[in-house]
């Protein structure tokens, strides 16, 4: 029962962030949505035409993906662990709401499908890794960090980086080819 309660508490921070992201796009940056952006046909054609070099892309992803993960993991071992978890959940909710709203406004249902294709398969690794760290932040001191959690989080992040570098560009190009 405590597990269900904690999941609801974490969801209680993600969902308001998600709603704020939707509201932000619809009311504050509405005038910028009409401008060409990442969901424009031109940008998507350019992306489909670019040859992505997986090794170089991996180096870029290490900087972009590991910084927030390392920051969250580092803060998980301080007294700010619960605040860090709340900020992380609010921010990921806000970013998700904003991205999905812009996708729907720019492309309709195809935009949602593009977002789903864009986060697969690597987010199937990133999400469990983040959940383990967030769960630790949320449940401390009842939940202790151990070697198994360290190995799990590190392996999931590495698998996510590999999938995002090598598999995701192929999936995105295949999807953009049928768009």
Brief description of this entry?
This protein is mainly α and 179 residues long. It is built from nine helices and no strands.
Keyword list:
mainly alpha; 9 helices; globular; 179 residues; 83% helix
Question: Can you describe what's shown?
Answer:
It is a single chain. It is built from nine helices and no strands. The model has no long low-confidence stretch (mean pLDDT about 90). The longest helix is centred in the N-terminal third of the chain and has 27 residues, at about 1-30. The chain is an all-alpha fold and about 180 residues long.
Fold blueprint:
Layout: H1 2-28, H2 30-33, H3 41-49, H4 54-75, H5 81-107, H6 109-119, H7 123-139, H8 147-166, H9 168-178
Helix pairs in contact: 1-5, 3-9, 4-8, 5-6, 6-9, 7-8
**Which sequence of SSEs, written as H and E, runs from N to C?**
HHHHHHHHH
> What share of residues is helical?
over 70%
Instruction: Tally the beta strands.
Output: 0
Helix vs. strand class: mainly alpha
Protein name: Stage II sporulation protein M
Keywords: Membrane, Transmembrane, Transmembrane helix
Transmembrane segments: 12-33, 83-105, 111-138, 150-167
Organism: Schaedlerella arabinosiphila
């Amino acid at each position: 029962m405590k597990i269900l309660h904690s999941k609801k508490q974490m969801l209680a921070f993600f969902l308001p962030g998600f709603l704020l992201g939707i509201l932000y796009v619809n009311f504050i940056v509405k005038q910028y949505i009409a401008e060409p952006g990442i969901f424009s046909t031109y940008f998507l054609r350019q992306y489909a035409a670019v040859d992505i070099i997986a090794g170089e892309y991996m180096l870029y992803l290490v900087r972009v993906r590991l910084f927030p993960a390392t920051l969250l993991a580092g803060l998980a071992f301080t007294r700010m662990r619960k605040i860090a978890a709340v900020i992380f959940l609010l921010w990921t909710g806000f970013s998700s709401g904003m991205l999905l709203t812009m996708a729907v406004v720019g492309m309709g249902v195809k935009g949602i499908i593009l977002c789903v294709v864009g986060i697969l398969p690597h987010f199937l690794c990133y999400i469990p890794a983040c959940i383990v760290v967030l769960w630790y932040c949320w449940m401390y001191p009842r939940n202790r960090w151990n070697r198994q959690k360290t190995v799990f989080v590190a392996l999931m992040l590495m698998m996510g980086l590999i999938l995002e570098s090598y598999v995701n560009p192929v999936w995105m190009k295949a999807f953009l080819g049928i768009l």
